[in-house]
């Protein structure tokens, strides 16, 4: 029987979902002897919790964002590490977030809301924060946006000084503006700073976070929109990988946590567009994209010609009406492929495709892969 040490911060959604996914694999496919550490209220000094442990006695380690992991890193045993301050730890199997996709998703979302002004708020000298900013900026440039306002600071800096600088920065930003925060913690910080300066959210400043910890997001004021990440599935795959590593069936790998969807709440519930006809068109599309609507149907909801609406729509949102319908349909399909085990024909029926083959061709034309291959790559059938 393999002896495994699991260390995780279960106070946050990330740790809980990784462990939830890992538990599903462990309970179904292993007979591990699992050890965990006592909670913080019993032992505040996390380093003391491990002093009584003989780390060399363990066959493997599953570590989800924990402090003082240096002694574990020195042990030459299979390890799965999710350590966000320093994602790259050579010689280990790692869990990292797909920050490039996260930044791209955030940019496309704000563009779809019609913003002219964009900003980013992150952490200084943290790789994943920098990557999210670079991807966000590059995607906006592809959409014709030349400037992204940026505010970064170190996580451990004096909070009062940081808050003062942040509020001054927010006051000087052009408005309305969409602000992408590197994670939910940073996004909540922005919302609090907006209250201090009496800046209206989302009318003047729309805020988007990352991680989608529903308790944090729903309890914020206003409720925070956030990018949900597929941590639970990655936890399942991580436990499988650890099992294979201990059996010497594979080499170390990097497991990537992909963004799943944007969970829209009040903090981004706005269309930063003055053109009433474009707003009407967007509202109709968002309400009916799951039906087989055509561009003509969208035009009929407005008071202008098709040619005029197409011109205004593309000029304002950097995409055509048809592109917007396809974008929302593909997002909806991906969400169902990732979050459900529904067979493909049922997902096709929800979007009123004539048959599964037509559904598969449509998805492949937009993404380059079939729905079944997309789901298979995420290992959701494991």
How is this structure best described in words?
The protein has 382 residues and is of the alpha/beta class. The chain has 3 domains: 3-97 and 231-257, Rossmann fold (3-Layer(aba) Sandwich); 99-229 and 262-268, 3-Layer(aba) Sandwich (Rossmann fold); 276-376, Orthogonal Bundle (Arc Repressor Mutant, subunit A). It is built from 16 helices and 12 strands. The protein has helices at 13-29, 46-49, 70-74, 99-112, 127-142, 159-172, 184-196, 214-219, 231-246, 276-288, 295-299, 306-317, 321-339, 344-350, 356-367, 371-377, and strands at residues 3-8, 33-36, 60-64, 79-82, 93-97, 118-123, 149-153, 177-181, 205-211, 225-229, 254-257, 259-263. The strands form 2 sheets. A 6-stranded parallel β-sheet has the order 2-1-3-4-5-11, covered by helices on one side. The chain has a 6-stranded mixed β-sheet with strand order 7-6-8-9-10-12, with helices on both faces. The radius of gyration is 23 Å and the shape is globular. The two termini are 23 Å apart.
Number of strands: 12
Query: In percent, how much strand structure appears in the residues?
Result: 15-25%
CATH superfamily of the largest domain: Response regulator
Q: Helical percent range? A: 40-55%
Summarize the topology:
Layout: E1 3-8, H1 13-29, E2 33-36, H2 46-49, E3 60-64, H3 70-74, E4 79-82, E5 93-97, H4 99-112, E6 118-123, H5 127-142, E7 149-153, H6 159-172, E8 177-181, H7 184-196, E9 205-211, H8 214-219, E10 225-229, H9 231-246, E11 254-257, E12 259-263, H10 276-288, H11 295-299, H12 306-317, H13 321-339, H14 344-350, H15 356-367, H16 371-377
Helix pairs in contact: 1-9, 4-5, 6-7
């Amino acid at each position: 029987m393999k002896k495994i040490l699991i260390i995780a911060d279960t106070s946050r959604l990330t740790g809980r979902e990784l462990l939830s996914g890992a538990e599903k694999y462990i309970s179904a496919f292993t007979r591990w002897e699992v050890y965990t550490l006592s909670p913080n209220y019993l032992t505040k000094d996390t380093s003391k919790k491990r002093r009584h442990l003989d780390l060399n006695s363990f066959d493997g380690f599953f570590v989800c964002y924990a402090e003082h992991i240096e002694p574990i890193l020195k042990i030459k045993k299979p390890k799965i590490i999710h350590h966000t301050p320093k994602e790259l730890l050579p010689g280990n199997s790692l869990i990292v977030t797909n920050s490039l996709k996260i930044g791209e998703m955030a940019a496309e979302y704000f563009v779809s809301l019609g913003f002219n002004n964009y900003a980013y708020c992150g952490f200084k000298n943290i790789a994943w924060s920098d990557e999210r900013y670079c991807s966000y900026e590059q995607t906006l440039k592809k959409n014709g946006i030349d400037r992204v306002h940026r505010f970064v600071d170190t996580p451990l800096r004096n909070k009062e000084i940081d808050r003062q600088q942040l509020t001054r920065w927010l006051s000087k930003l052009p408005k309305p503006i969409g602000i992408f925060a590197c994670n939910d913690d940073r996004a909540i910080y922005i919302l609090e700073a907006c209250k201090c300066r009496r800046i209206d959210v989302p009318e003047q400043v729309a805020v988007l976070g990352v991680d989608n910890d529903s308790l944090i997001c729903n309890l914020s004021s206003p409720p925070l929109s956030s990018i949900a990440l597929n941590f639970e599935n990655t936890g399942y795959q991580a436990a499988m990988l650890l099992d294979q590593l201990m059996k010497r069936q594979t080499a170390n790998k990097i497991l990537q946590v992909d963004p799943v969807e944007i969970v829209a709440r009040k903090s981004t519930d706005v269309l930063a567009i003055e053109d009433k006809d474009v707003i009407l068109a967007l509202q109709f599309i968002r309400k009916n994209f799951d039906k087989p609507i055509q561009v003509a149907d969208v035009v009929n909801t407005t008071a202008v010609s098709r040619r005029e609406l197409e011109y205004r729509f593309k000029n304002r949102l950097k995409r055509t009406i048809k592109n917007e319908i396809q974008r929302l349909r593909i997002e909806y399909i991906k969400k169902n492929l990732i979050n459900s085990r529904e067979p493909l024909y049922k997902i096709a029926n929800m979007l009123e495709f004539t048959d599964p083959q037509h559904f598969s061709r449509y998805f492949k034309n937009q993404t380059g892969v079939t729905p079944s291959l997309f789901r298979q790559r995420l290992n959701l059938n494991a």
